[in-house]
Structure formats: structure tokens, C-alpha cells
Design brief:
The protein contains 14 helices and 21 strands. The chain has helices spanning about 10, 35-45, 95-105, 120-125, 165-170, 200-215, 245-270, 275-285, 295-300, 320-335, 375-390, 405-410, 415-425, 430-440; strands at about 5, 10-15, 20-25, 25-30, 50, 70, 80, 85-90, 110, 145-150, 155-160, 180-185, 190, 190-200, 220-225, 230-240, 290-295, 310-315, 340-345, 360-370, 390-395.
């Protein structure tokens, strides 16, 4: 029986950062694709829109609705595991951390990941979540098939062989083409990663950036604003043996310093902003070099308990160094006091129509502020810089771009909106965010 909830406290939904919220007319917790079909058809009869939420790790209004909110907490089944083809089909609401554990039990893994594993598989996929990689791309490039419920209530499957255009569009579709109910992942044999984390100065990182990107399977770095300090991270496959961080070292670095202490630092700097440059300098020095080897997903991901707001843009790879230099120059010209490090990652080209890395080698530049701090001036100044070089905003992170800009940077944007017109002419799956980024 379809679970429908209507109390006010259940209908109100907030995202993880606390910067987005909406109250739905009703909340449905489906346990199957058939129950999603029922919810979509009932919404159509009642003239309501439908959106499925995840765990709220998007900073945009992508999941918001004042109509019917689908809560995926019971849509978490494992439909099939084929160790011969390495294809694994799971339902949309399964969290990534449970998928990772499941794959590991069967000697499998995702080839690449972002650094958070709390999202649902469909939520992470629909916003084109990515990690950093020389050869292995983001989540959209690791999908073999999708099952969706369309606006007319039909259940369809798509892959590279079956409805390939829908597959290329819907892998990063923001739920605007249909409700994803299951994802088939193309996994790889489980592997170990050797992680090397090393502090470097800004000039050294930029002078060696191309070298480190070419020599490592996964390279990224963080710059601490108002300082010369950066932290570089290089992850590469090794045969073993595993040599994970000692339990105390993991707790000290990744739990206590990176979360508990960092949260205290942000609370203090919120009250006393003038301390930010000094504190950033201390943080840059406190995160020393370390090397360890562990199961891939344990290296890719990290706990994140300090709440923040984020903006991220993908720029053409060849524009990375000049863009970073201009970004640093902005700090010299502005009176920004930013406590969060700036993250830089790389990705090869992807073929999904709305992947931020579609058709080009890309560099991702992510900026953050503490979730209780104002962001408008900082995010706006950086966004102006990113859009000047044809940057593409992350679909799940804060930006102000609309369809008129996005169609200029995505070659298949008009194909996507045409498919949306065909599949959802009544905009059953629309909300304010999809209307802004795709048009009415």
C-alpha cells in the first residue's frame, strides 16, 4: 500500500546546508517503481508537480516542490549483481555508502567517486556528482542503464543500446525528464588506492600542476585563501598490501581536526573575521604529509560534518592556471575573508549531455563558506570570473545562471530541452530551479 504522509512537520523539507526548504502538499514514500507510477498519476489528476528528494546534499533548489514530494527511504532494494559483467542494479534511494559496502562484499567497486558518500545513488547521479580523475570520469560515466517513470506514468528503461538519446540525457537530468527508480552501475574489480597527501606552496603547485595531473590517476589540491599554503592529494592504484591509517590517526586528522576543530574555527571566525588569514595559515601548516593504502572508496571519501554552502564551476582545462591566477588576484582586490579552502579537481571528457565535463577536458573549482555566513558577494565575484571563460556550474551547487547562459556552454542543451518538451509537456516534474535552468 502506498505510504502517504500529510502532517506539517513531515511535509516541510530542508537540505543539509539549511539554505533550501519547501513544504509539499503531500509526501509519498514509494517502495517500488509501480508505487512511483501511482504517485505520478495521482499527482497528474490533482494538478500537482512531483519531485524526488535525496539526502539533501544539493545546495540548489533542485529537489524542492510544493506539490508531491517522493521520499526514497524505502526504494533501496538491490535488484541484481552480475559478477561476470560487473553490472549491479540498485534502486534509486540506496545511499552511496551502502552501495560501496555492497560492491566491496562482491569484489567490485566504482572506478571513481566524489568525496561524500551519504547521497542517494539517484540524487548523486542526477546532479552529475564527480570526483577527480585522469582516466576515470564521474558517476554519469559509470552507468550502464536507467529505469525511469515518465510523466505519463509509463516505466521505461534506457541504455546505450535501448533509447540511447534518453540515456545520454537522463543520466544527468535533474529529475526533469522522469523519476529515476533504478540505476545499473558498470563497476570494476575492487582495488586499493595509495593516497599521498603533501603540503606545497602555491607557486610550486601551479608550476607542477600539469606534471602531477599527468603522472597520477587522481590528483587534486586545496588552496587556503590569504596564504601561500596548499594541500595536494595524489591517489593511485597499487597491488597492496593495504596499509590504512591507524585508527587514532584517522580520528585525529579526519574527524577531530578536519571536522570538530574546523567547525570551532568557523564559529570563531564568524564572530571575529579578522582572524581568518592567521587561522588559515595555521590550518595550512597543521595538515601535514601522510601516506596510506586502503580500499578505494575509503580513500575517495571523507566524513563531512561541518555544514557549508558551495559553488563549483567546471572550466576548460586549458583555462585552469590563468583562472586560478585571476582568482587569487581577486582576493588581493577584494576584502573577502574566507576560512574554507578552495578545491581544484580534474576530469576527462564525458558524453552525457549535461555533464559539466561534456565534450572537453575540464577543471573544477569549488568554493565554500560556512553555512551561517553570507555568500553573495564572494560567490558572485567568483561566478563572474568562471562564466567569462565558459564555465559550467555544478547542477547541485549554488549559482545564478539561467537557460540563456547554459545553452551557450552546452552543445546538446537544445536537444535536452526538446526531449523534455516531448516527455513532460505539462511540466509534471518542474520546479522553480528547473524552470530557471531549462526554461518554461
Amino acid at each position: 500500500m502506498l505510504t502517504v504522509k500529510s502532517s506539517a512537520n513531515v511535509r516541510l523539507w530542508r537540505n543539509w546546508a539549511g539554505n533550501q526548504q519547501a513544504s509539499a502538499q503531500r509526501v509519498v514514500t514509494p517502495r517500488s517503481a509501480d508505487e512511483v507510477v501511482s504517485a505520478v498519476r495521482q499527482a497528474a489528476e490533482d494538478g500537482l508537480t512531483v519531485r524526488m528528494t535525496g539526502t539533501g546534499h544539493s545546495f540548489t533548489g533542485a529537489a524542492l516542490t510544493d506539490g508531491v514530494r517522493l521520499a526514497p527511504g524505502r526504494l533501496t532494494g538491490v535488484r541484481s549483481i552480475d559478477t561476470a559483467t560487473r553490472q549491479v542494479t540498485v534502486e534509486a534511494g540506496l545511499p552511496l555508502h551502502r552501495l560501496n559496502a555492497l560492491l566491496d562484499e562482491h569484489g567490485l567497486a566504482l572506478a571513481n567517486m566524489g568525496d561524500i558518500q551519504e547521497q542517494t545513488v539517484s540524487g548523486a547521479l542526477q546532479t552529475a556528482t564527480h570526483g577527480t580523475g585522469r582516466d576515470a570520469a564521474g558517476l554519469v560515466s559509470q552507468v550502464a542503464g536507467l529505469e525511469l517513470v515518465l510523466a505519463d506514468g509509463s516505466v521505461v528503461s534506457c541504455s546505450r543500446d535501448e533509447r540511447p538519446e534518453l540515456f545520454d540525457a537522463a543520466r544527468a537530468g535533474l529529475g526533469a525528464l522522469g523519476v529515476v527508480t533504478a540505476v545499473t552501475w558498470q563497476t570494476v574489480p575492487a582495488f586499493l588506492l595509495r593516497a599521498q597527501e603533501e603540503p606545497m606552496r602555491w607557486d610550486e603547485v601551479l608550476s607542477r600542476l600539469d606534471e602531477m595531473a599527468a603522472e597520477n590517476e587522481h590528483f587534486e589540491f586545496y588552496w587556503f585563501p590569504h596564504t601561500e599554503g596548499c594541500l595536494t592529494k595524489r591517489n593511485n592504484r597499487v597491488d597492496g598490501p593495504a596499509a590504512p591509517l591507524p585508527a587514532f590517526k584517522h580520528w585525529l586528522d579526519d574527524r577531530f581536526l578536519s571536522n570538530t576543530v574546523f567547525d570551532g574555527i568557523n564559529r570563531l571566525s564568524r564572530r571575529m573575521p579578522a582572524l581568518v588569514p592567521t587561522v588559515n595559515g595555521v590550518c595550512a601548516k597543521a595538515l601535514g604529509a601522510r601516506t596510506y593504502t586502503d580500499t578505494s572508496y575509503k580513500v575517495f571519501t571523507s566524513p563531512r560534518t561541518v555544514r557549508f554552502k558551495e559553488q563549483e564551476y567546471a572550466v576548460p582545462r586549458e583555462q585552469l592556471i590563468p583562472t586560478l591566477n585571476e582568482l587569487r588576484a581577486l582576493f588581493a582586490r577584494k576584502d573577502w575573508l574566507i576560512s574554507f579552502p578552495i578545491e581544484v579537481r580534474l576530469l576527462p571528457p564525458e558524453d552525457t549531455w549535461l555533464s559539466m565535463a561534456h565534450g572537453r577536458d575540464s577543471a573544477f573549482i569549488a568554493i565554500h563558506v560556512y553555512n551561517r555566513n553570507p555568500h553573495e558577494e564572494y560567490f558572485g565575484g567568483v561566478e563572474e570570473l568562471m562564466t567569462a571563460v565558459g564555465g559550467r556550474p555544478h547542477w547541485g551547487k549554488m549559482h545564478t545562471r539561467d537557460a540563456s547562459y547554459l545553452e551557450s556552454v552546452y552543445p546538446r542543451f537544445e536537444d535536452f530541452t526538446a526531449l523534455r518538451d516531448e516527455l513532460d509537456p505539462d511540466r509534471r516534474f518542474a520546479n522553480a530551479y528547473t524552470t530557471r535552468v531549462f526554461g518554461k
